[in-house]
Amino acid sequence: MFDFLSDYDNPTLLGAFWMTVKLTLLSGIGSLVWGTLLAAMRVSPVPLMRGFGTAYVNIVRNIPLTVIIIFTSLGLADIFGVTMGASDFKVQGFRLAILGLVAYTAAFVCEAIRSGINTVPLGQAEAARAIGLTFSQTLRLIILPQAFRSVIGPLANVLIALTKNTTVAAAIGVAEAAYLMKEMIENEAQTVLIGAVFAFGFVVLTLPTGLFLGWLSKRLAVKR
Amino acid sequence: MKLRKASAAAAAAIVLSITATACGGDGDSDSNSGSGGGDKIKIGIKYDQPGLGQKEPDGSFSGFDVDVATYVAKELGYDADQIEFVETKSADRENALARGDVKFIAATYSITDERKQKVDFAGPYLLAHQDLLVKSDSKISEATDLNGQNLCSVVGSTSAQNVKNDFAPKANLKENGTYSECLAGLQSGAVDALTTDDSILAGYAAQEQYKGKFKLAGLKLSNENYGIGVKKGDTETVNKINAALEKMVKEKAWDKAVADNFGPANYKNEPAPKIGVIVK
Amino acid sequence: MSSVLYDAPGPRAKRRNLIISVVFFALLALLVWFIWNTMDEKGQLEWALWKPFTQSEAWTTYLLPGLADTLKAAALAMVIALPLGAFFGIARLSDHRWVRLPAAWVVEFFRAIPVLLLMLFANEFYDRWTNVTSEQRPLYAVVTGLVLYNASVLAEVVRAGILSLPKGQSEAAMAIGLRKSQTMRSILLPQAVTAMLPAIVSQLVVIVKDTALGGVMIGFTELLNSRATMASYYANVIPSFIVVALIYIVLNFILTSFASWLEKRLRRSKKSTGAVLSAEDMEELNPAAVGGSFGTGGEGGGLPGSRTYT
C-alpha cells in the first residue's frame, strides 16, 4: 500500500522533509537576526531608520510570499546576479529560497519583538536611562532580554508558520515536501494516501515545536 | 446594530453574486457539452504560448493551434463567433476531455501511447521536435555541449529531464514557472539554453521583443506528433477532424498558418504530417 | 518624537543622529542606484516593457480579470470561513468534553498543515470525486484550502476574543438566570465580535495573499497567474512582477486602512457594554494578528499587559 513512497529517489520522502527542516531552521535563524535588527530600527532615535523599518514591514507584509520567492530567482539571481555563491542551480535555489523566507518572515518577527518590547514595564527603561545607559545599551542589556522572554509564544507561532511557508519554495524548484507531493500526485493514483502522508509529516514537524516552545514560554515568562 | 445589518447585507450580496456566477458557469457547460449545429463549441487551447496559443491584449487568440482549431471548427459547422476558447493547462487536458468540458483540444498535445489510453487523437497536424533555444551568438550546437552549461526549463518538465538523462548529465538545470521566465533569463545571460518543443521555442523567438536575439539549435532530440485530443470513444468526431485536417493541408491553409505563426522565427518546419502516421 | 528608550537628544546626540542618518541614507541611496543601474544595464527599464501598463488593454484583458478572480476567491473564503470559524471557536469553549475535544482536534490539525498542501489536496479531491468542471475546479480548490485553514485560525481568534472578556460578564449573566446559550449569544459574542472585528478584517489580507498560492501550484487564474499570460505576450517578466506586487500592496493597504478605520469607529461608538478593545489590547490577545499576520505570516499568541514605547 505504501510502496509508492520508496519509488522516488530525487528526492526521497525523508530527503524532502529534511530539506523542509533545513529551510525552516536556516530561515528561522536568519529571520530572527534580521527581524531583531528591524525591531531595533523601529524604536531607534534616528527618524530615517524608524521610517525604513516601518516601510519595510508594511511593504513586505502585504506582498504574497510566492511573489517574493519567485522574485529572488527571477529578479535577484537572473537580473542582479545575486547567485549566493553557488553556480549549481539546486544549491542556488535553496539559498535564494532562504533569502526570500528570511526577508518575509523577518517582518513578522519584527512585529512580534516590537510588541514584546511594549510589554517591558516603563520603569525598566527609565531606570536604565537614569543610570546613564545609552539607547543601544538600554535596548541590548535591559529591554530586549526581557522582551524576548515574553515573545517566545508569538515567535513559536511565527516559526510554525515558517515551517509551513517553506512549501512555497517548490515554486522555484527546491526539492522539499510540497515539490515531492506534487510529483507524486501527478504519477500515482493513491491521492488520499499521499495527502495523508504529507499532512502527517507536517503535523509531526509543527505540533511538537508548538508544544515545546509553548512549555518554554511558560517557563521563561517574566513573573510580574 | 446598523453595522451588523450592513455587514450582513454585504455578506449576502457577496454570496448571492458568487453563487449566481457559479451557477451561470455550470449552466453554460451543461448546455454546450452536447454537440449541436447552432450551439457554441468549446475548444481547449493554451493561453500563454506565443505562436501556438496566446491570449492577445484585445481578448482574441492567436497562434498555430488556434488557426488549426478554428479551421477544424469551421469544417464541423461552427463559425468563428460560435467558438469559445478555453484554457487547458497541460495537466488538465485529459480530464477536460473525459468530462466533456471541451469538444476537442489543440494545445501542443503530443500523441503518446500513455495518453492514448485516456483520450482519442485526431491528426497529427504538426511534427515538432525537442530542441534548444540559445542566444544568436551562442556556440552551443549539440546537446552534449550543454554539459557544464546552464539549461532552463519549467518545473516538472520532462524535456529537461530527457536532456539530462540522455545527452548532458552535467547540465545545470534551472526550473522556472513559465517559459517566458526562462527567456528573460536567457536574455540576461543567467541561463545558456532553454529546452522544449521547437514549435514552442520558435513562437517565443518570433516575438517582437526578442526578434534576432535568439536562434534554434536545430537539433531533433525527439519527435512530438501534435494531435487534436477528443473524448475517448468519439470516433465520429475524430473522423470529421481528420477529414478537416486533410482538407486544410490540401487547400494550403495549413501552409499559410505555418507561415503566419512561425515565419518570423526562421523555423524550418516539417512538411504537413500524414493523418494517422505517427513518427516515433 | 521622544521615547522612553532614549533621552531627548542633546547637541551631541543630535549631531550623532545626523551622522547616522546621513550614512544610512547614503547606503540606501547606493542600493537604489545599484538596483536602477543594473536594471538599466539588463534592459529592464526599456519603455517597451513598461508601456503596456499605460494601455487599457493590458489591464482589461489580463490584470483586471485576474484581480477579479483573486477577490472572488478571497471573498468566498472569508464568507464561508467566518461562520465556520465562529462555530469551532465556540465549540472549543464548550463545557462538554465530546464537543470541545473534536473541535480542538480539527482546529489544531488544519492549522498545522500548509495551505498549499490543502489546496493541492482539495484540487485532487474535486477532480476525482465530484463533477466540478475543470474551469471551476481551481476556484473550488483554492476556496476550500483557504476556508479549512482560515476557519481554524479564525476559531482561535474568536476563542481568544471571548476569553478576553472580563469574567464578570458571564458571571453577571448567570446571576440574572441566563442559560449558557443565552449568555453566549446575547452577552459574550456581541462584545467579543466587536472586539475582534479589526483582527478579522486583517485576516482578509492574509486570505488575499494566499490566493496567489493557487495560481502557482494548481493553475487558478488569479492575479499572479494572469500575470504569466500577460508576460508571455509582452515579454516583460520583471516589470509585470513589480506591477503585480504593487497591486497587492495597494490592495492590502486599503484593507488594513479599512481595518483601522473600523476599529476607530467602534471605539468611538462605544455601544453595548461599553469597552471596545483597543489596538493595544488586541495585541495582547493576538500580537501579530492585528497586522494581519496569520496564514503565510506569523501567528498570534498571548501576551501579558502592554504599554506603548514608540
TrEMBL record, chain A:
It is a multi-pass membrane protein. GO terms for biological process: amino acid transport. CDD domains: TM_PBP2. Belongs to the binding-protein-dependent transport system permease family. HisMQ subfamily. PANTHER family: AMINO-ACID ABC TRANSPORTER PERMEASE PROTEIN YHDX-RELATED, MEMBRANE COMPONENT OF AMINO ACID ABC TRANSPORTER. InterPro entries: AA_ABC_transptr_permease_3TM (IPR010065), ArtM/GltK/GlnP/TcyL/YhdX-like (IPR043429), MetI-like (IPR000515), MetI-like_sf (IPR035906). Keywords: Amino-acid transport, Cell membrane, Membrane, Transmembrane, Transmembrane helix, Transport. Gene3D superfamilies: MetI-like (1.10.3720.10). Residues 17-213 form the ABC transmembrane type-1 domain. The chain crosses the membrane at residues 16-41, 62-82, 94-113, 158-180, 192-216. This is Glutamate ABC transporter permease. It comes from the Bacteria. It holds the Pfam family BPD_transp_1. Its main location: membrane. One of its GO terms (cellular component) is ATP-binding cassette (ABC) transporter complex. One of its GO terms (molecular function) is transmembrane transporter activity. It is found in: Cell membrane. It comes from Streptomyces caeruleatus.
From TrEMBL, chain B:
Residues 40-265 form the Solute-binding protein family 3/N-terminal domain. Residues 1-22 form the signal peptide. Keywords: Signal, Transport. One of its GO terms (cellular component) is outer membrane-bounded periplasmic space. Pfam families: SBP_bac_3. Coiled coil: none annotated. Belongs to the bacterial solute-binding protein 3 family. This is Glutamate ABC transporter substrate-binding protein. The lineage of its organism: Bacteria, Bacillati, Actinomycetota, Actinomycetes, Kitasatosporales.
From TrEMBL, chain C:
Residues 67-259 form the ABC transmembrane type-1 domain. Keywords: Cell membrane, Membrane, Transmembrane, Transmembrane helix, Transport. Belongs to the binding-protein-dependent transport system permease family. The keyword Transmembrane applies. InterPro entries: AA_ABC_transptr_permease_3TM (IPR010065), ArtM/GltK/GlnP/TcyL/YhdX-like (IPR043429), MetI-like (IPR000515), MetI-like_sf (IPR035906). GO terms for biological process: amino acid transport. NCBIfam families: HEQRo_perm_3TM. GO terms for cellular component: ATP-binding cassette (ABC) transporter complex. The keyword ATP-binding does not apply. It is found in: Cell membrane. Residues 292-304 have a biased composition (Gly residues). It is a multi-pass membrane protein. This is Amino acid ABC transporter permease. It holds the Pfam family BPD_transp_1. SUPFAM superfamilies: MetI-like.
